[in-house]
Amino acid sequence: MKRTDDASPTAILKLADYLCFTVYSTNLAFGKAYKPILDELGLTYTQYITIIALWEEDNVTVGRLGEKLFLESNTLTPILKKLEAMGYLHRQRDPADERQVRVGLTKSGRRLREKGLDMDLIEACGLMPEEFPKVQKAIATLRDNLIKSVQDRE
């Protein structure tokens, strides 16, 4: 990590000085904040965002869903199997292309939306309403830049 402030280039950085650690620890804090709510639904955070993605775009291929969630197939498949066992979604081969598996919500999966809409961590975040889109956009830009950087090296 390179510093852009006036600190000496030979200074030893503290863990709190690393942007990557700040993002990582913020993610952990979000997980802890969501946990009581998700426990009520019987879902993990990753299962919950998978359901949200399917609320937005139902009956998608596993590949498309993985792209949307930034998850590899080997990570996503166990999540989908668990959600299917819970009765929230179904998986089936695409009749037009047997190589593709499509994922869609069941009635139970769609009904989770009503319960999930109660999730509101606005107060816990301590941000003003106008700050939310700015913070979200800055983090998304950071993510996209990192992805592009990795792709450029490949």
Automatic annotation (TrEMBL):
<keyword id="KW-0238">DNA-binding</keyword>
<protein>
    <submittedName>
        <fullName>MarR family transcriptional regulator</fullName>
    </submittedName>
</protein>
<dbReference type="Pfam" id="PF22381">
    <property type="entry name" value="Staph_reg_Sar_Rot"/>
</dbReference>
<dbReference type="InterPro" id="IPR036388">
    <property type="entry name" value="WH-like_DNA-bd_sf"/>
</dbReference>
<keyword id="KW-0804">Transcription</keyword>
<keyword id="KW-0963">Cytoplasm</keyword>
<dbReference type="InterPro" id="IPR000835">
    <property type="entry name" value="HTH_MarR-typ"/>
</dbReference>
<dbReference type="InterPro" id="IPR055166">
    <property type="entry name" value="Transc_reg_Sar_Rot_HTH"/>
</dbReference>
<keyword id="KW-0805">Transcription regulation</keyword>
<feature type="domain" description="HTH marR-type">
    <location>
        <begin position="16"/>
        <end position="144"/>
    </location>
</feature>
<dbReference type="InterPro" id="IPR039422">
    <property type="entry name" value="MarR/SlyA-like"/>
</dbReference>
<dbReference type="InterPro" id="IPR036390">
    <property type="entry name" value="WH_DNA-bd_sf"/>
</dbReference>
